[in-house]
Design brief:
Elements: H1 9-19, H2 25-35, H3 42-55, E1 60-63, E2 75-78, E3 82-90, H4 93-98, H5 101-113, E4 122-126, E5 128-133, E6 136-141, H6 149-164, E7 172-177, E8 182-187, E9 196-198, H7 212-219, H8 221-224, E10 230-237, H9 241-244, H10 257-267, E11 273-281, E12 294-302, H11 309-321, H12 330-337, E13 351-354, E14 361-367, H13 368-375, H14 381-388, H15 404-410, E15 415-421, E16 430-435
Parallel strand pairs: 3-10, 4-9, 10-11
Antiparallel strand pairs: 1-2, 2-3, 4-8, 5-6, 7-8, 11-12, 13-14, 14-16, 15-16
Length: 446
């Protein structure tokens, strides 16, 4: 169950440590229990933890304080501004049920791995069509229904994969182009452990009050109604197109997250503010080799007569500014949160540096988790070689990299130092092994 979400496990543990002793033990235990379960409560618990962490040092914070109305909203905060707020998350689960790309991806990975193909290396492209929905349009993917995906993969995709396995083509390619189903699957014979895909944005909102964000806000209205003082809703992204769209659209009629929030506040005057938080991934430019940058993005909207906007903005800035470094988007984090298997760290990233002709191998750097998996027997040496794309001993396979440990051993080199290089914020470290010159203990005299 050791999966990352939007932020690394190390970052979340640090946040848990930060609030320890500052909130009731029962609150902390409940958060930990939810974070340790691979289910739909994981991301809401993660966001609740991060909001608490962002508020805990800005003022007095009480969790689930009972109000005169008898209700127990998530937060009661008293600092430069005082307010009562509920935290909620929003996702496109309903649209995902109708467009089961995630199920297709998981089934292909599961069934092709049984054939001995490496983990990852899959690219899936899916066609789409548009249909009328109320006064607008709706996009749907050309896929079977969710309950039929497993059988579709087993009957239509895997047999063609099996047929191509003995052949030399790389990648293996399966194309299905029919009126109701349009899928292209590409599977690499040698993989770095990562997969990709492409499909139309079927969750783009078309109406201000018929979308997941508005529904999530509306569901919190009764919890905050008739409470004295300022009230607000902090809504966090658990994978919804409503929050992935920019706050200002390209046209007046475009439905964005900010406009949905403004519409909600206009319709519900007893709610004073809404803060929406997501993670935006900076678009990569062609031929850009720098790592993708993921930044927190927030939208704050208040009622027109709200008197303490600046104080509220300062508090909200503190919440957003305290967020850890994101390692994936809410889209990918939502999928990872439901998985039971450990995710890859720096697996497959082994590298070496040369020390010149006389010295041979100078240093080798390898994933700490991958190294532990090998030493503990969780993976075999063959699997280690496959993930790092090493050539088999004694072979000269084209396109394959040499095994650096085999090279060092063949030259009579032994390790002289081993260092651990932190990989924070990622959930892995690097083990750097420095090799000395040929050692007479394991090589010829020289």
């Amino acid at each position: 169950m050791l999966t990352f979400m939007i932020f690394s496990r190390r970052s979340l543990q640090s946040c848990l440590d930060d609030i320890r002793g500052k909130v009731d033990d029962a609150v902390l235990k409940t958060l930990i229990a939810k974070l340790n379960r691979a289910n739909e409560q994981r991301l809401p618990a993660m966001w609740e933890l991060l909001v608490i962490r962002g508020l805990i040092d800005q003022g007095d914070l009480t969790i689930e304080e009972k109000q005169p109305t008898g209700r127990e909203p998530d937060l009661s905060f008293a600092g430069d501004i005082s307010f009562v707020a509920d935290i909620t998350t929003v996702s496109d689960k309903g649209r995902d049920e109708v467009n089961p790309y995630d199920e297709l991806s998981q089934q292909i990975e599961k069934q092709k791995t049984k054939l001995g193909l490496p983990i990852g290396g899959v690219d899936i492209r899916v066609g789409h069509y548009r249909e009328r929905a109320g006064r607008g349009q709706r996009t749907n993917l050309k896929l079977p229904r969710r309950g039929k995906i497993a059988n579709f993969v087993a009957k239509r995709i895997i047999p063609e994969v099996k047929r191509q396995i003995p052949l030399t083509n790389d990648p293996i390619l399966v194309e299905i182009n029919e009126p109701d189903v349009e899928v292209t699957v590409s599977i690499k014979r040698h993989s770095d452990g990562y997969s990709s895909g492409g499909f139309a944005a079927y969750s783009s909102p078309q109406s201000l009050d018929r979308n997941p964000l508005y529904n999530a806000l509306k569901s919190k209205y009764d919890q905050l109604r008739n409470i004295n003082g300022y009230t607000g809703i902090i809504v966090c992204d658990s994978d919804t197109e409503c929050l992935r769209k920019p706050s200002i659209g390209t046209g007046y009629s475009e439905v964005t997250g900010a406009r949905i929030i403004e519409h909600f506040l206009n319709q519900n005057s007893s709610i004073d503010f809404v803060l929406a938080i997501t993670i935006h991934e900076e678009r990569r430019m062609p031929l850009q080799f720098d790592p993708v940058e993921r930044r927190p993005y927030a939208v704050l909207r208040v009622q027109k007569d709200f008197a303490e906007t600046q104080a509220l903005e300062d508090v909200c800035t503190g919440i957003v500014g305290s967020l850890p470094t994101a390692i994936c988007t809410p889209l990918n984090g939502a999928r990872r949160a439901l998985e039971q298997i450990p995710q890859l760290g720096f697996h497959g990233g082994c590298s070496m540096s040369s020390g010149g002709t006389a010295l041979g191998i100078a240093k080798v750097k390898i994933s700490a988790r991958e190294w532990m998996d090998l030493m503990s027997g969780k993976i075999t040496f063959e699997r280690l070689s496959e993930m790092n794309d090493w050539a088999a001993p004694g072979s000269n396979e084209p396109g394959k990299k040499p095994n650096p440990f085999l090279l060092a051993n063949s030259r009579g080199q032994l390790p002289v130092s081993i260092n651990v290089i932190s990989g924070v914020p990622k959930d892995d470290d690097w083990i750097e092994i420095e090799f000395g010159p040929p050692d007479a203990a394991v090589s010829k005299f020289h």
